[in-house]
Fold this protein.
Amino acid sequence: MTQHATESHGPAAARGAPPLILGWVISRFARWYDERPVAGDACLAGLLLLAFVLPSDLSSEGDVLVGLAFSIALVATVPFRRRAPVAVFATVSVLCLAQLAVLDNIVAGDVVALIAVYTVVAYGPAGRIGAAATACAVVGAVLAAARWNERADSPAWLEIAASTVVSVLLAATLGAWRRSRRAEHDALQERNRLLAQERDQQAAVGAALERARIARELHDVVAHSLSVMVVQADGAAASAEQRPAAAAATLRTIGDTGREALVQMRSLLGVLREESGPNGEALAPQPGTAQLDALVEQVVSAGLPARLSVEGPARPLAATLDLTIYRLTQEALTNVLKHAGPVSRVDVVLRYRDDAVELLLRDDGRGAQVASDGRGQGLAGMRERVDVHAGTLAAGPRDEGGFEVHAVLPT
């Protein structure tokens, strides 16, 4: 049974192979013909000349050489019809008028007039040129029927004129159909181009936003940790000779701070790479409000008299909002360390409201701190983080002295 099925399937496949091959050949030829208008139409002109014009004109009556010359001249315009459709139509029209004056019979090359009408409608400039060319061709068809018929009032003249006019109108209709198909194809190509451009723009915007987010994260981690380490290193250097034990403790704190910065950096890079830890363990999550106590203790160990207070019932927050509050606090404390000068009090207040979370950080320093890293990225990064959550941020010197940062983030 299996052998019989195989044998019956083989001939069917063999019968289906030629149409597939023929379709592939036709599609390849059509693509080549569209991409090379002059070469493709030159092949068309050669086919017309060898298969239709020469056999018909050489066997016709009348002045064979003059008729053949007109046919060859008409066919010679075909290779340029798509490159210059209006010029080709004008040339064909002039040749046909000259033929009306010289010859007493139609020639095989007159079929090029129909090709010229089709081409000027399909490939010519948009507007009335196609309609004008069709009208001229109709008039020429009527004149030819009258010129080459012995009795213009006979029914045969009407039949010849009608058939010629119908042929012209059919060529113009085919040209209009071809033009509409080209317009649809061009519109589709333009739509695809716009979609690809929009996709590239969206990718570029997404990449820019991602770079900005990474820059903020790196700035917050590195700037805060380095600021704490610089302050502690200065303190350790000042007390190294007289209080070596305190200096040693400070150095250990510097090491702990550096290791914590490395852990956060590794966590950030791990999220970007979607990796696990070196031993296969899951990387630590991004910090949030639960780590604010440790953050404040870290700056306290660096000598900053900071104090954290939480107002209102604490509740779980979205991960991005939780991280934003932590980074805002981290950046604000870093700016106090770097710019506030001597301070006696730094208050960090986290206030839970029904519809928002407020973060307030104020100090009593010199009130001239600049929330940046020298290029404006500190305050700019804070504003970017707040804008993501449609919140508000106010940062500036206080009237009674010191500096204040106030952020409101809707929940």
